[in-house]
Structures are given as C-alpha cells and as structure tokens.
Amino acid sequence: MDGETYSSYHPFVSHPVVTVILGTIFSCILLWFIRDGLRVEGIEQKHVFVTGCDTGFGNLLARQLDQRGFNVIASCLTDKGEQDLQAASSPKLKTVLLNVTDSQSIEKALQFVQTEVGDKGLWGLVNNAGRATPIGPTEWMEKEDFNKVLDVNLIGLIEITLRFLPLIKKARGRVVNVASVMGRLAFAGGGYCLSKWGVESFSDSLRRDMQYFGIKVSIIEPGFFKTGVTSLAVIEKDLQRLWDRLSPEVRDSYGVQYFDKYLKAQSLSMNTFCSSDISKVTNCMEHALIAKYPRTRYGAGWDAKFFWLPLSYVPSFIADFMLRALLPTPDASRQQINLAFNSTDNLNKIQVNPH
Ligand SMILES: NC(=O)c1ccc[n+]([C@@H]2O[C@H](COP(=O)([O-])OP(=O)(O)OC[C@H]3O[C@@H](n4cnc5c(N)ncnc54)[C@H](OP(=O)(O)O)[C@@H]3O)[C@@H](O)[C@H]2O)c1
C-alpha cells in the first residue's frame, strides 16, 4: 500500500501536522500531571496553622495533615472544639483558641505559633474559618448583617494573613485561602458572596505581591458540602428572624406564601447540591500544601467543576435566567406582569377601536 492510499484510509493518524498537534497536546497533559504530582520534602519539619478547626473542613484537614506527619497547629473557636480535636488526633497536634474577629485573640495565637515554629517559620497558613448567616434576599438585610459575615470571612482573614506573613516569609511558605463558588458567582444576598469575592481578590493581590519572596498563594473554591455553614436549621432560623422584622409593605410585596416557598426551594437546592464527602475539599487544601507546584485555584466538588464555575463564565443574562429558576417569584413581580399585560391589552383595544 503506497503512502497516498494509506493516508486516504487513515487521515488523522498519517497526516504529519495532525500527529504533531495531537502529540504536543498529549505531552503537555502528561507533563502537567507529572508536575502536579511532584511533592515537597521534609513534611515532618514543617508547621501548618489552620483556622476554624472546631468542625467541618478545618477539623478534617487538621486530622488529615496530622496523619501525614505535618506539625499541625489547629485553632478552634471554642474549648469544646479544642478538646474534641485533641482527642481525635495525635499528641503532636497542638490547638489554640482563636476568634478571627478579635485582634487580641489573633495576637495571642500568633505568639503561640511563633513559639512553636521557632526559627523555621511557618510553612502553611490555611484561612478556613467562616460563617454564612445572615444569608438571603438582599432587601431583607441591614448593614449589621453584612458586617457579621464580612468581619469573619474577609476582615478576619486579612488581619490573620498580615500578622502571620513575617513567619510565612521566613519559611518561604504558603497561604491557602478558602473562598467559595459563591466568590465567583453571586447568587445569595448578604455578606457571604461579598466576603468570598473579597477573599478571591485579596488572594490574587497577595499572590502577585508575594511571588518575589517565594510565597505561594492558593484559593479553594468548594461547591456545596454538608457542614456547619450549610446547616439548613441554622440558615432557616436566621431567615425567619429576617422575615419577621420586615415592614408589612416589604413583606406584602413578596406575598404571604413567599417565605415557605423560599425555604422549600432552598432546601431542594441544598439537598440536590450538597455532598457529604468533605475530603474532596481537604484533599485540595492538602495538595496546596504538599505539591511542589501548588495550583492557584482549586474547584472542589462536582457541582463546582461542572455547574457553578462554568456558569460564572456565561453571559450574565443566561446566569440570571438559570438562577431565577432556583427560587420562587415574589407576588409583586406577578402583579407587575399582570399590570403590564393589562395595559398592553388596553392599548391594543384603544388602537383597534380608536373611537
Ligand atoms: N460547606 C460548604 O458548602 C462550603 C462551601 C464553600 C466554602 N465554604 C467555606 O469553608 C470554610 C469552612 O466552613 P465549613 O463548611 O467547614 O463549615 P463549618 O463546619 O461551620 O466550619 C467553619 C468553622 O469556622 C469557625 N468559626 C466561625 N466563626 C469564627 C470566628 N469568628 N473565629 C474563628 N472561627 C470561627 C466555626 O466555629 P463554630 O462551629 O464553633 O461556629 C467552624 O468551626 C468557610 O470559610 C466556608 O465559608 C464552605
């Protein structure tokens, strides 16, 4: 079989340009996987400080890193959180109390960590502590509701990072900031999305500014997982508080049925999206700490990778349409549509029968 006949049977395999392109793509993917799999050495000599370890991602991460051999310093908001974590981990893991909204508490935790790490500095800072409530329709919020979330998720994270930066610089270490898909696509009112957009932008600036000092900054963008921040009991209780304090006019514009419909829609979405396998998130955090070349962004969970993050790239009118389908419609919106429909109807009548 001569070359011409062969190429007509196997155009993709035999065509040299296509072969080179496919070969290059395959080699790039292979190289990326090899690079992504490279690990740092001397984990046993490295210290990692994690915030918000009472429950959820922080709690699992602290235990996971402890098993890996890191020197973990886990900060908890409560005494009980500290005791429970100590009971579930090796004696090597240290705990410290920390409220990320309290500068004095941050200072005490810093002193503790400084003593623990000595001259080696801090290899990893994982800013994980966070809260979600108050979260709900924007119009139901007051300024204080925004502050409650921003203080923990954004201002607390910034203050801790700035105070711990000299220790991280010493170790040419890493900062791992927990954002969210809600930091890429805003689909709930209140401080949560704002705070996570803030975490994204703070992390981007930090990464660009600190690259000269060998510090790497990674952002974790989890989808929905069953933890304290997605607890429907907590979110619904707080929504009830917001609903109850609305003025009668605002409440009427939503309609009497709205609150119940909102809770049902929210519960349906949460039950559809929330995964109980939180190791998908902690594995990303661990990779950011042990990989020789940590990634800048980690989308964690199938909903993040295949729904929320792609949706954040589509034109806003498509995202608005999709997100609208997830929540009920306030009564006032239907009244306005009826009003518009009636006025068009009247206009037609006038035009058809002008006399
Ligand atoms: N679960 C999800 O679907 C999801 C998705 C995207 C991003 N995230 C983010 O992931 C991080 C961890 O949340 P999680 O899902 O693991 O929920 P979680 O179980 O509620 O963990 C959050 C932790 O932060 C602690 N915390 C709250 N306020 C604090 C403060 N002022 N100072 C120090 N610690 C404080 C909480 O302590 P208490 O329990 O004692 O209040 C809790 O241990 C948060 O930043 C959250 O926004 C979660």
From TrEMBL:
The chain crosses the membrane at residues 12-34. GO terms for biological process: steroid metabolic process. Keywords: Membrane, Oxidoreductase, Transmembrane, Transmembrane helix. It holds the Pfam family adh_short. It comes from the Eukaryota. InterPro entries: NAD(P)-bd_dom_sf, SDR_fam. SUPFAM superfamilies: NAD(P)-binding Rossmann-fold domains. GO terms for molecular function: oxidoreductase activity. The keyword Cytoplasm does not apply. Belongs to the short-chain dehydrogenases/reductases (SDR) family. This is Retinol dehydrogenase 7-like.
